[in-house]
Structures are given as structure tokens and as C-alpha cells.
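Long-time lurker, first post. I've been practising inverse folding by hand and with some scripts of my own, and I keep getting stuck on stretches where the C-alpha cells seem ambiguous. Below is the full C-alpha cell string for one chain I'm working on. Before anyone asks, I'm not after the true native sequence, just a reasonable design that respects the backbone. If someone could post their per-position residues I'd love to compare against what I wrote down in my notebook.
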């Protein structure tokens, strides 16, 4: 009888341990990792923003069919003269397009969208 109780207690403790380990690991799996884009870092048009356009946008925004023209060397003039990058970033046409137009949303990552936002809020410079 005593032996049986001990056995039950052992199984009980083992179950609690398994539950605890499972709990910790599932916590780890679901924990939210904030995107690693620093709003206080200086974001540069030539080295941070243009590569996003070159990789994801210029098949259409090539100066022939869709405007703004997002090709390297053309994009800054096209964006600024067309009024696409007027601060604040949140209401600029460029940021609005890539975050709300369902055809555009998948063409840049969450990190890239934030880089565009911060670059505009830092003055949308041709830096
Ligand atoms: C598959 C073709 C295609 C690609 C790739 C594409 N776009 Fe577009 N874009 C369009 C079309 C078509 C329009 C105009 C119709 C619309 O608003 O959906 C447009 C409109 C826009 C506008 C608004 C123009 C205006 O006058 O209001 C912006 C800004 C823009 N795109 C930015 C981008 C950016 C930035 C990328 C890359 C991350 C991109 N697009 C990739 C097809 C594309």
C-alpha cells in the first residue's frame, strides 16, 4: 500500500515537471520578437531605401508604365516631385501604398516598411 502511494506520487511529480517544461518551451516559441529596425538610427536613401525598390518594385515602376519611377538614379526625383514622400511618413503616399494596398503589401518586409517610414520621418533626404 505504502509502495503504491509512493509510485503514484512519483508519477504525479513527473507529470508536473513535464507540464512545466512544456509551458516554458511553448512560451519561448510564441514570444513576440519586435522587428529590429531602430527609429533613432539614420536611414539613408541610397544604401537603405533604393535597394528595396531595386529588388521589389522596378519590374513595374520602370518609368514606362507605373509612376513613380523607382529605378536607381531616377527614384528620388520622381518621388519628391510627385509628392509621394511628404512627411509625416504615416500619411505619405509611398508608405500608405506599401502598407495598405493589398497588391503592394507583400512586396516589402515589415522591416523594410519601417525603414521607409523612419527615412521619411527623418526628412526624406536624398542621403
Ligand atoms: C506588379 C507591378 C507592381 C510592382 C512590383 C509594384 N507596383 Fe506600385 N503600383 C503598381 C500599379 C499598377 C499601381 C497603380 C495602381 C494602384 O494604385 O494599384 C501602383 C502604384 C504605386 C504607388 C502610388 C502611385 C500613385 O500615384 O498614387 C506607389 C507609391 C507605388 N506603387 C509604390 C510601389 C513600391 C514602393 C513598390 C515596391 C515595394 C511597388 N510599388 C511595386 C504596380 C506595381
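-- Answer (accepted) --
I ran through it position by position. Result:
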Amino acid at each position: 500500500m505504502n509502495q503504491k502511494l509512493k509510485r503514484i506520487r512519483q508519477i504525479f511529480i513527473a507529470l508536473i515537471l513535464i507540464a512545466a517544461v512544456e509551458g516554458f518551451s511553448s512560451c519561448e516559441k510564441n514570444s513576440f520578437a519586435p522587428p529590429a529596425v531602430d527609429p533613432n538610427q539614420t536611414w539613408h536613401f541610397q544604401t537603405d531605401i533604393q535597394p528595396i525598390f531595386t529588388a521589389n518594385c522596378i519590374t513595374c515602376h520602370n518609368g514606362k508604365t507605373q509612376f513613380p519611377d523607382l529605378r536607381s538614379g531616377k527614384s528620388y526625383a520622381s518621388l519628391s516631385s510627385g509628392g509621394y514622400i511628404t512627411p509625416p511618413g504615416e500619411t505619405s503616399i509611398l508608405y500608405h501604398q506599401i502598407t495598405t494596398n493589398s497588391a503592394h503589401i507583400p512586396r516589402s518586409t515589415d522591416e523594410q516598411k519601417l525603414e521607409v517610414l523612419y527615412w521619411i520621418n527623418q526628412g526624406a533626404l536624398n542621403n
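A couple of notes from the structure itself: Residues 2-30 form the longest helix (29 residues). The radius of gyration is 25 Å. Happy to go over any region you disagree with.
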